[in-house]
């Protein structure tokens, strides 16, 4: 039986797909076929997959930490207990080799989430934590630093465990931990992901295990018995909202937590927390500090919002071509509700000689990363997509977003968070942007709900009037 995949401060080659391969795959399959679904919902993005993939895309594409201007809200069971924060890594009493790792990774000072989380994560006795933080704000570095601070590399058995919802995300976390711990002697990391096998009844010698729930649980079960949950000092659940929303993963997480020693430090990190999820998290994490972000809608003040009445695909497409024919647009994103609509728009634009790229769930994560990289570098000016990029994928310098279809949920009501994420791709970093919504008789009511929810004006636009179109960017 083969040994587990182990990271020992060695470099990995990043998986890359060429633009040519992506184009070939689009021509061969993406524009030709739909995946099947027994409930005949193949035209919708798979929500669990989309959110996990979006997080991975963010990690793959991130070139810098983002400044999150949202206010942080801290909740404690004992409000009189001290709450610490730090402005410098040097104030955390870290091991010198960990400071070296941080500097080598380009960290110069803690991000906002790190300022509050790290002093509490590194305190003694260990403090449990539930934290909400977007990808790109340093959350992975925060829990990686906490894990590496708690382990003893002279002890050759697993002491820290980190779970992620997908093997790709687990690989990204492994890379961060490896880079951060590159100066730690004898550090070894085991990747508990699908396909990696371990001998039965032989205890792992790696101090850190990073993997997906199913494989991790299998390794810890009496059948494999590769490590003991009772010996763990730290347990991390990343992308907790995605993990907990998946029933199978949720059950495994509960079983793992039940097997942990009472003094094991537990951390849950997530980009978003809906109320049912946060309540579940409180049940499995004893006496935690909870760090949440207060929603900031300040960015909407930098976005001019319009709507255009369109009663069919053809009228929407004519409005689209009129707008792009009269406006000087830097980069734009066009959101469609289904893969089919997105493909139809791409086909029509391509036939009319308009350069554009398709981004949807039909591409695998690495292909999507390549498309977004081209868009970010300015090699592609127009992106036609489904909700796959609405979940926190940030591309700078977008000055126009068009909702070819409004984001409508299965209950027929508008999805306010998705709408905010979509139009939030423009009007970033203090720049002004434009968002245009195509609506028909059936969705006009949803637009009214969006207007009331956000309290920002959405003006009517006549897409056949050149003067009106030219004025929207003034």
Automatic annotation (TrEMBL):
PROSITE patterns: HELICASE_ATP_BIND_1, HELICASE_CTER, Q_MOTIF. Residues 1-27 have a biased composition (Basic and acidic residues). Pfam families: DEAD (PF00270), Helicase_C (PF00271). Residues 120-291 form the Helicase ATP-binding domain. Its EC number is 3.6.4.13. InterPro entries: DEAD/DEAH_box_helicase_dom, Helicase_ATP-bd, Helicase_C-like, P-loop_NTPase, RNA_helicase_DEAD_Q_motif. Residues 87-115 form the DEAD-box RNA helicase Q domain. Residues 1-53 are annotated as: Disordered. It catalyses: ATP + H2O = ADP + phosphate + H(+). The keyword Signal does not apply. A motif (Q motif) lies at residues 87-115. Keywords: ATP-binding, Helicase, Hydrolase, Nucleotide-binding, RNA-binding. CDD domains: DEADc_DDX19_DDX25, SF2_C_DEAD. Residues 302-473 form the Helicase C-terminal domain. Residues 32-41 have a biased composition (Polar residues). The keyword ATP-binding applies. GO terms for molecular function: ATP binding; hydrolase activity; RNA binding; RNA helicase activity. PANTHER family: ATP-DEPENDENT RNA HELICASE DBP3. This is RNA helicase.
């Amino acid at each position: 039986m083969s040994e587990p995949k182990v990271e020992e401060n060695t470099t990995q080659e990043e998986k890359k797909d060429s633009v040519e391969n992506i184009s070939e795959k689009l021509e061969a399959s993406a524009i030709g076929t739909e995946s099947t679904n027994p409930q005949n919902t193949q035209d919708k993005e798979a929500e669990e997959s989309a959110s996990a993939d979006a997080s991975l895309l963010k990690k793959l594409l991130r070139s810098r930490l983002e400044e999150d201007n949202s206010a942080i809200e801290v909740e404690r069971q004992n409000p009189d207990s001290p709450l610490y924060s730090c402005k410098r890594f040097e104030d955390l009493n870290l091991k010198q080799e960990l400071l070296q790792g941080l500097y080598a990774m380009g960290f110069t000072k803690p991000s906002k989430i790190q300022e509050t989380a790290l002093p509490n994560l590194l305190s003694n006795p260990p403090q449990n934590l539930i934290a909400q933080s977007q990808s790109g704000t340093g959350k992975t570095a925060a829990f990686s630093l906490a894990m590496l601070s708690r382990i003893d590399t002279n002890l050759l058995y697993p002491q820290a465990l980190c779970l992620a919802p997908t093997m790709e995300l687990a690989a990204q976390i492994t890379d961060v931990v490896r880079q951060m711990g590159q100066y730690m002697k004898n550090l070894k990391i085991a990747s508990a992901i699908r396909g990696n096998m371990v001998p039965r009844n032989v205890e792992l010698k790696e101090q850190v295990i990073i993997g997906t729930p199913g494989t991790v649980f299998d390794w810890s079960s009496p059948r494999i018995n590769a490590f003991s949950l009772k010996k763990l000092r730290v347990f991390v659940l990343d992308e907790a909202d995605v993990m907990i929303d998946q029933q199978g993963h949720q059950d495994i997480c509960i079983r793992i937590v039940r097997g942990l020693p009472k003094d094991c430090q537990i951390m849950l990190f997530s980009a978003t927390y809906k109320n049912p999820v946060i309540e579940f998290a409180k049940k499995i994490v004893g006496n935690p500090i909870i760090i949440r972000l207060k929603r900031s809608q300040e960015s909407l003040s930098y976005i001019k919002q319009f709507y255009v009445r369109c009663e069919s695909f053809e009228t929407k497409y004519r409005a689209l071509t009129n707008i792009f024919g009269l406006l000087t647009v830097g980069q734009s994103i066009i959101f469609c509700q289904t893969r089919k609509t997105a493909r139809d728009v791409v086909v029509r634009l391509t036939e009319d000689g308009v350069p554009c790229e398709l981004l949807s769930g039909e591409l695998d994560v690495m292909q999507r990363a390549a498309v977004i990289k081209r868009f970010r570098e300015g090699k592609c000016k127009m992106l036609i997509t489904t909700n796959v990029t609405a979940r926190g994928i940030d591309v700078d310098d977008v000055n126009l977003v068009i909702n070819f279809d409004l984001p409508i949920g299965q209950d027929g009501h508008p999805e306010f968070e998705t709408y905010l994420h979509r139009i939030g791709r423009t009007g970033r970093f203090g720049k002004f942007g434009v968002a245009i919504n195509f609506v028909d008789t059936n969705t006009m009511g949803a637009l009214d709900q969006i207007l009331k929810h956000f309290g920002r004006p959405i003006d009517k636009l006549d897409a056949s009037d050149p003067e009106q179109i030219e004025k929207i960017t003034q």
